[in-house]
Every structure is written in structure tokens, then in C-alpha cells.
Amino acid sequence: MSERQAFLDRGIGEDRGVILLDGQPERLLIRRHDEDSSLLVGTRLAARVRKVEPAFASAFLDLGEGREAMMAFKPESRPVEGQMLDVEIRTAPRPGKLATVRVLGDATGNPRVLDAGPDLESLLCVLGKCDEVKLGPEAGRVADLAEAGALETIHPLPGGGNLAIEPTRALIAVDVDLGERKGQDAKRISRQANMTALSEAARLLRLKGLGGIVIIDLVGRGHDAHALLAAARLAFAPDNPGVSIGAVGRFGTMELLIPRRDRSVRDILLDAEGRLTDQTLALRLVRMAQAEALCDPGGRLIAKAEPGIVAEAQGLFSTLREKVGERVTLAAQEGWGRTKMQVVPA
């Protein structure tokens, strides 16, 4: 039976929640302190219908304070412009896409937040199906490992071989590779690899926060389609409701549709070019400095990074100094690469 554990790393500038599945990271939830919490999944708002697009069966909603969302409607429940609705955020916004909502009923007054969504600790308990969330230094280490794993492209498979997960604009491509799996029965080895790959693909897609159309390129030929379909249903069950799984095609691929809900880890940590953002790197720098300050309670420290990261980190280090004193300073290093960071004794 699978075992899940929940961890919550409460940090300076962001909180990171992790679910472990049998000791491996399954979900990574990142909440940055400067983000708009009113657009988080589960938040309830009063929204005004700003514009109706009958041709697309969609409407644009004004959520107040410049926030927007989109809702789909059926012909018999078409809203009218200016109407006030009670809505709940169904999917968070992502680059190029508005948040989407589901309608709970009618509302009155002006656009506003009616009820905040679940906090991170409560959400971890629900997703992990557990009563306890672990805090402290261990949670930070688990979150660091989960973050590193979520950004990898190629992942080793238990028993040999690997799995490559690559998001594209249209879909998520998952490639299964046997690698150096040994054995004389090629069909049996391929079957084992595919079964393992389905389980690992489901876990890793949840970890990365990826959804939409997923194409899994299986290994071998002459697949046991019924067994693979049953394995896929079991592996992706935690992503329900909304998962659709197609049969294995003639070219050895399986097609799935996984609902998108929250932002992906890539959307949070990376920029449009696929690089770690200045904010992501500044948060890493302040975590490094905080860890060193706790290990050396009386020591004076200098956190070093390239000028852009240091500029981004100024506010974070002000908060750190409130916790550990004025003994931690920042120093910009001209000519350093963006990812080079050090925390050293002063």
C-alpha cells in the first residue's frame, strides 16, 4: 500500500509544500508571499460579467482590482453583460492564459473576494490524505530535492531505463527508454518497463504540476493494451476528476488528458526562456544565508551573487536581518554567472 507524507517549508518570501509518495516527491506546491492569493484555486469571489462571447461559449469576468477570469457556459445558461456571479477559481492563471472559474450562483454588490481558498497546510493534508504536516529543517531539505527533481527532464526508472518528460506548446511528450535493462525476454522486459513508466510518469507529472494532453511513447511492440490501460487508470487516479485515458495506438503511444488546475513548477520558477528567474535565485540565496546563520549563531556572513540577483534579494535580506540580526550582508559580484552564489564568513 502506498504511503504519503506531507512537508511544509515556511520560508522568507515563499512557502513550499511537498507530498512524498513512498519516499519520492509527488507534489510540489509553491506559494510566494507577493503573489495575488485571490487567484489561487479554491478562492471564492463575486465577479461581474464584462463581456460575453457566444461563438466560443465563453465570458470574460471582472474580479475587481484589475483581475480577470474566464468562464465557459452552456447555451441554456448564457450570462448577460453586467450580471454579478458567485464564482470559484477552478484553474489558476498561467502565462498567456486567464484563470478559469466555475459558477456557484448569483451575487450582489461589487467584484470582490468572498472567501479565501484553502491555506497551504490544509491543502497538503487533503492531497496527502494525512493528518500531520512536518515542518522545520527537514521540510526545507525535502522541498529543495523536490524542486530540483521537478526541473529535470530525464528521470531514471526503477529497474533501469529512463523517462523523459518535455512540455511543448501543444502537449506534454513522455518518452520511455529501456536503457540498459537486462534480460533475454524482450517482451517481458518491455512490459515491466512500461508498467513502471506509467506509475512514474503519473507521479512526475503531478510533481511538475503539468496537465493537458499527454502523449506517452511506450517501448516495444505487441502491447497488452488492457493491462496498460488498467495500470494507467490506477497511476493517474489521484488526478481525478477529469482524467481521460485513450487506448494504446497503432504506433505504441498512449494519449491522456489530465486536467490543469494550479500553475506548473516551471511557470513559477522559470522565465519565458526557460531560465531560473531573478526572484527564484534571490529566494535560493536567502535560504542559503538563513541556513548558514542558523548553523553559526554568532558569526558575521556575506552573501555573494551577481548584481541583478543581489538587487532582487534586498527586501528578502531585510526580513532575514529581522530574524537573525544585522550580521548578514549582501555583496554584488561583477562578472559572476547568474546561478553562482556563495555565503561565506565576513
Would you list the SSEs in sequence order as H and E? EEEEEEEEEHEHEEEHEHEEHHEHEE
Helix content: 25-40%
The total beta strand count reads: 19
Main β-sheet, spatial strand arrangement: 11-12-13-14-16-15
> Structural class, from secondary structure content?
alpha+beta
CATH architecture of the largest domain: 3-Layer(aba) Sandwich
Strand content: 25-35%
User: Poorly predicted ranges (pLDDT <50, ≥5 residues)?
Assistant: none
Instruction: Tell me the name of the CATH class of the largest domain.
Output: Alpha Beta
Give the terminus-to-terminus CA distance. Answer: 51 Å
Name the shape in a single word: globular
Attribute tags:
346 residues, 29% helix, OB fold (Dihydrolipoamide Acetyltransferase, E2P), 7 helices, Nucleotidyltransferase, domain 5, globular, Aminopeptidase, alpha+beta
Describe this structure in words.
This protein is an alpha+beta fold. The chain has four domains: 4-35 and 119-145, 2-Layer Sandwich (Nucleotidyltransferase, domain 5), CATH 3.30.420; 41-115, Nucleic acid-binding proteins (OB fold (Dihydrolipoamide Acetyltransferase, E2P), Beta Barrel); 152-265, 3-Layer(aba) Sandwich (Aminopeptidase); 276-345, Hypothetical Protein Ychn, Chain: A (3-Layer(aba) Sandwich). 29% of the residues lie in helices and 33% in strands. It contains seven helices and 19 strands. It has a six-stranded mixed beta sheet with strand order 11-12-13-14-16-15, with helices on one face. It has a five-stranded mixed barrel with strand order 4-5-6-8-7. Helix 6 runs parallel beside helix 7. It is globular, with a radius of gyration of 23 Å. The N and C termini lie far apart (51 Å).
